[in-house]
């Protein structure tokens, strides 16, 4: 085994499994004497972690779990934590990251942990350097960010009706790094489809570009429409969102967090 391994977090977008949009960490930890159980080391289950100005977050070393996409176990090992040199950023020796209130929307930086993986009976062990990209966002600048659940829809004839897990999306997540994912029935890391999005806050227009999926169904490669966010309700108009080709054509879909 090499003395030094450089492991950079990569996207979990793949043909067989969708991106893990949140950490799913089991209660069982991996500690000294059990390091042989370590799979792929990461700092979070996301390609890019999103934080708001003035926010703190406790990061941990995590190991992926074989055969369980999006599942992780915390690894107890000494680590040296550092962060990109930028005004308003600080990380302590335990991995707690602080983003000052003055850090601007759209700022990006990298958090790094250099861990020593050494069993009690080993003389040297080995070092692992794990990196995590972080993006700062202000909800006022991007009100789309979040994990939304569809609760109603409106036909093109103006008829509004409630939806459930079979007729709507239980998860439509927009992330601050410009990616999104959608699922009728999300489970751990599973998502039906995912891609990138862009929006114009002045015109209230939004564009979704499909990048991949486990169930793309009738989802077009590119979908454009309009959006509004008012009183905690996200409304998307003129877009095909449900992957089932048998689902009725709708003119508007409403979501709440």
Written account of the structure:
- It contains no helices and 21 strands.
- It is mainly beta.
- The chain folds into two domains: 4-136, Immunoglobulin-like, CATH 2.60.40; 146-256, Lipocalin (Beta Barrel).
- Strand 11 and strand 12 (126-136) form a beta hairpin.
- Mean pLDDT is 89; it is low at 1-21.
Question: Strand count, sense and closure of the main sheet?
Answer: 8 strands, antiparallel, barrel
| Number of discrete domains | 2
Indicate the structural class. Answer: mainly beta
Architecture of the largest domain, CATH level 2? Sandwich
Which residues form runs of ≥5 with pLDDT under 50?
1-21
Question: How are strands sequenced across the largest beta sheet?
Answer: 13-15-16-17-18-19-20-21
How many DSSP H or I helices? 0
CATH class of the largest domain: Mainly Beta
Shape: globular
User: In which range does the helix fraction lie?
Assistant: under 10%
Query: Topology as H/E string?
Result: EEEEEEEEEEEEEEEEEEEEE
Mean pLDDT: 89
- Give the termini separation: 46 Å
Number of strands: 21
Q: How much strand content do the residues show?
A: over 45%
Radius of gyration: 20 Å
CATH topology description of the largest domain: Immunoglobulin-like
Question: Which helices and strands appear, and what pairs or packs with what?
Answer:
Blueprint: E1 4-8, E2 24-25, E3 41-42, E4 48-51, E5 56-58, E6 62-65, E7 68-74, E8 79-83, E9 89-91, E10 96-99, E11 108-117, E12 126-136, E13 146-155, E14 160-162, E15 171-174, E16 179-183, E17 193-200, E18 205-213, E19 222-230, E20 233-237, E21 250-256
Parallel strand pairs: 1-12, 2-7, 4-12
Antiparallel strand pairs: 3-6, 5-10, 6-7, 8-11, 9-10, 11-12, 13-14, 13-15, 13-21, 15-16, 16-17, 17-18, 18-19, 19-20, 20-21
């Amino acid at each position: 085994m090499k003395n030094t391994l450089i492991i950079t977090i990569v996207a979990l977008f793949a043909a067989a499994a969708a991106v893990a949009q949140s950490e799913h960490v089991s209660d069982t930890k991996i500690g000294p004497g059990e390091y042989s159980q370590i799979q792929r080391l990461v700092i979070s289950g996301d390609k890019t972690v999103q934080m708001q100005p003035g926010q703190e977050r406790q990061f941990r070393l995590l190991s992926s779990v074989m055969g369980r996409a999006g599942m992780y176990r915390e690894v107890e090992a000494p680590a040296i934590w550092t962060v990109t040199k930028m005004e308003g950023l600080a990380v302590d020796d335990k991995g707690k990251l602080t983003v000052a209130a003055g850090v601007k929307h759209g700022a990006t930086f990298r958090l790094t942990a250099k861990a020593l993986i050494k069993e009690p009976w080993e003389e040297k062990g080995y070092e692992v350097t794990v990196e995590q990209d972080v993006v700062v966002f202000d909800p006022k600048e991007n009100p789309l960010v979040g994990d939304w659940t569809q609760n109603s829809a409106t036909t093109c004839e103006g008829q509004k009706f409630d939806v459930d897990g079979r007729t709507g999306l239980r998860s439509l997540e927009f992330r601050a790094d410009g990616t999104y994912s959608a699922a009728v029935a999300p489970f751990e890391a599973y998502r039906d489809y995912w891609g990138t999005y862009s929006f114009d806050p002045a015109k209230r227009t939004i564009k979704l570009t499909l990048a991949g999926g486990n169930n793309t169904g009738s989802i077009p490669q590119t979908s454009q429409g309009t959006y509004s966010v008012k009183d905690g309700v996200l409304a998307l108009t003129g877009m095909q969102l449900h992957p089932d080709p048998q689902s009725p054509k709708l003119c508007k879909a409403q979501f709440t967090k």
